[in-house]
């Protein structure tokens, strides 16, 4: 349905900033109605929700621990999703995954089980 490729991860000092990108490649003829999200998984932890955005960008949601620090946005063509991260903390260290699910309505989702398309992940390491 859609292929997702994340990039932008790396090593950053606590308090620093990083921007992750997710490029979505869709088959010709597929209507762009993708709810998008970022999840992360730290070593030894379960994958957790970070941020989500509806296909038209009108609805967003974040997990409490990143509110005010992370911002999810989409490019004008809706094919690229970004996660701008500022004031990074060591506890933000994780592999970050982009996810997508097709929806006929403008919705967001925080549930892992709702998503059927996943990227390979990009590692973010925040040093103390």
User: What general outline do the C-alpha atoms trace?
Assistant: globular
Number of helices: 0
Low-confidence stretches: none
Structural class: mainly beta
- The SSE string, one letter per element, is EEEEEEEEEEE
Q: Please give the radius of gyration in angstroms.
A: 14 Å
Helix content: under 10%
Q: Strand content of the residues, in percent?
A: over 45%
Instruction: Please state the average pLDDT score.
Output: 94
* Termini Cα gap: 40 Å
How would you describe what is shown here?
The protein has 128 residues and is mainly β. It is built from no helices and eleven strands. Strands 2, 4, 5, 6, 9, 10 and 11 form a seven-stranded mixed sheet that branches. A four-stranded antiparallel sheet has the order 1-3-8-7, with no helix packed on it. Strand 5 (48-53) and strand 6 (60-62) form a beta hairpin. It starts with a strand and ends with a strand.
């Amino acid at each position: 349905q859609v292929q997702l490729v994340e990039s932008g991860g790396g090593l950053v000092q606590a308090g620093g900033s990083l921007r992750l990108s997710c490029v979505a490649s869709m088959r010709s003829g597929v209507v762009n109605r993708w709810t998008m999200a970022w999840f992360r998984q730290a070593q030894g932890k379960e994958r957790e929700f970070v941020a989500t955005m509806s296909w038209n960008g009108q609805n967003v949601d974040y997990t409490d621990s990143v509110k005010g620090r992370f911002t999810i946005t989409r490019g004008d063509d809706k094919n690229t999703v970004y996660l701008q991260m500022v004031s990074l903390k060591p506890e933000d260290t994780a592999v970050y995954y982009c996810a997508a699910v097709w929806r006929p309505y403008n919705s967001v989702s925080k549930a892992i089980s709702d998503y059927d398309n996943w990227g390979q992940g990009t590692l973010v390491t925040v040093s103390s």
